[in-house]
Amino acid sequence: MGKGEHYERELMDRLKAEGFAYTRTPGSGGKTTEARPDIVAGHRHLDVTIATEAKFRSGGSCPYKSEEILGLESWALKFGATPLLAARFSRDTTWYFLPPSQANETPSGNRSIRKADRDDALTLEDIITGDLPPIEECLTRWDVESYAERWRTA
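-> structure tokens emitted (154 positions)
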């Protein structure tokens, strides 16, 4: 099991402990031509469904490639899930979540969550309380209506 998979499983264990149903998507993160998130989780009684790209880093920033972001957003929009970037840093057991639209944009068009962003990020407790932005506010650069129409006909 790779380091990334280990931390994805850790996140799934935390979601499970809070009563979420979840699935990990093998082959996500660019190992397939089909866009899909690392983890999809939902809780019917909390009315919460999330799709995440999860990263662990020992350094000061968790990077997300623009292709990962676009894939996450398109999948989440079709599925009806809130797209979230999930980051965990060494020596800190908290998972931090940001909508892609709120993550730092790099000059190359990628996104990142920095350790300095932790105060502005959502935590698992925020997700449990349903304190999530609307899906459309999470997207980085979509005209949501035309995008939704495109996927209805695809």
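The mean pLDDT is 86.
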